[in-house]
Amino acid sequence: MPPDPARTASIGEAVARARHDLGKYVAFEIRWLSPDPDPAALRAALRADVAATRREGDRVESAPALWDRLRPSLAALGDDPDLAAVDAAVEVLRDLLPDLDAAPPERLAQGAAAAYAVADALKRLDRRVRGAPA
Asked: Which listed site, 38, 63, 69, 90, has its alpha carbon 20 to 30 Å from 108?
């Protein structure tokens, strides 16, 4: 039986939304930093990228809050490995956020790696769903 086009479109739209709203902005500022950034610069970039991933008027959403809102629309994908990668990386970010201002450089680096992991996994997922070459 061929896939339902309406279901495929809605999943494709949900993946595209997650890639744009979360994947594009969760590592936006940290991409501009040097490979071994100053901790203060990395902290500021993580604050912008992870604590305030999406801004709309006065509303600000962190990466974990945004994922919590977007994730249910992707449930039809089941135990997809890229969704599991995003879930795991978002948990690292969720754990980092309360201590972001005092986190040591190692935790900041873990946060940056998690932000990159979210962006990369959503990019892979989007390409697979759209059938685009890697």
From this structure: 69
Give CA–CA dist 109/122, Å, rounded: 20
What one-character DSSP code corresponds to residue 32?
Answer: G
User: Which residue pairs from 75-79 have beta carbons closer than 8 angstroms and sit at least 24 positions apart in sequence?
Assistant: 76/7, 76/11, 77/11, 77/15, 77/125
What is the torsional sign of CA 69, 101, 34, 117?
negative
* Domain parsing of the chain, residue ranges: 5-129
Whether the CB-CB separation of 66 and 131 falls below 8 Å is answered with no
Q: What is the DSSP letter of 58?
A: T
* Per-residue pLDDT band at 34 (split at 50, 70, 90): very high
Phi, psi for residue 29 in degrees, rounded to 5? -75, -40
Paired with 60 in beta bridges are 55
pLDDT of residue 130: 87
The phi and psi torsions of 60 (rounded to 5 degrees) equal: -125, 130
Q: CA 17 to CA 122: how far, in whole Å?
A: 10
